[in-house]
Give the backbone structure.
Amino acid sequence: MAGTAVLGRRLSWLVGTVTEVHDETPAARTIVFDVPDWPGHVAGQHVDVRLTAPDGYSAVRSYSIANAPTANRVEITVVRIDDGEVSPYLTQTVAQGDQLELRGPIGGWFVWRPAQTEPVQLIAGGSGIVPLMAMIRTRALAQSNAPFRLLYSVRNPESVLYAAELRECSRDVSITFAYTRTVPDGWPTPPGRIDAAAVAAHTWPANAAPQCYVCGPTPFVESAADLLRAAGQEPGSIKTERFGPTGG
Amino acid sequence: MGLISRGFTSKRDTTETKLPPGQYLTKDFPVLSAGPTPRVSLDTWAFSIANEAGESKQWDWKSFRALPSEEFTVDIHCVTRWSKFDTAWEGVSLDTLLQDVKTSAGFALAHSYGDYTTNVPLADLRDGKAWIVFKYAGKELAPEHGGPARLLIPHLYLWKSAKWVRGISLMTSDKPGFWESLGYNNYGDPWREQRYWGDV
């Protein structure tokens, strides 16, 4: 079995140095770490980040890794939850040069590898775009020709993460936005949640036998996964990652 | 102690002793699963236990619900770091289900509708430590939380409490389940913070 060789490998805490921070939206910030001993990762995996207070108290949160695997580099995008314990620190306090502890990569199920050649359907709700962006970036880095489609549900145009980059890569990846609260000027349809009509119009048909990845808040994922099943996709071809209310 | 994070201070009440290390308390009930939620009809639902010789006992919904059940309140702990206190369940104890099962097996592998599996030592299913539950907070268990019935082993991280459970195989040797093959700890004791491979 593929996992046997590494079964038992202990994940150690590594020191990452912040090399860059930039705001994606008013509430979301990307943090780039240089991690000298980073073992590498696969698109879709996550990383634990540990913060430690001067009194020894520590808090750990898991974040999806946003970047394609390149040497010693780990990027995360954090959305601020105002009463959260960790996200305000990561989105407001952390600056270039700071050192934080990281442990990973974690998770081997919700992943896309460049060896996969089948069509891929990505469905993101809000910050659920992050691991799917890692897949899009990995596809580009690996010069893969796997046909990708992304259906990305956001509240309004201002909440789109990686907006400029998504515009850039829309030549290679078919991207459809679904706005739930406010649409851009001149948008042809009113705001609304992803429904059966949107799935029929903007996702791979079942006979294309896509691998589907759905990531977002729990109710979003429940609904999108049910819609994919209703559209005829095999349950075994739908991988999900649910962001619970994680307490920030 | 870890590396101090410049400018980070705790907002947490650290006097909470019911909380295992690295966990935080939630009042919600988050959902985590690897695929779509299976919808299992009570007409076709079945649960079985097979011993190491392949002999199996099976219950349909009616015979399962005719077994004596228990109401109990426990704390639950998810490897994704949330814990929830005082969750109220109703279910059938594994002691009841294992009562007439002849076995000298040391290990168990739970199977679910939707093909999920998870492994535990058989001892962790005995002596009032595990149940097949069908009610949460007085109501029939919702599909997204594992209904119609799930395994509940509250002293281990919650991924061991297989949702949509349909059977348990007893085995003389251990066999990693779904998450256990994908980097998560083979045993999963929250009090020893056994989250991932190699955590001891």
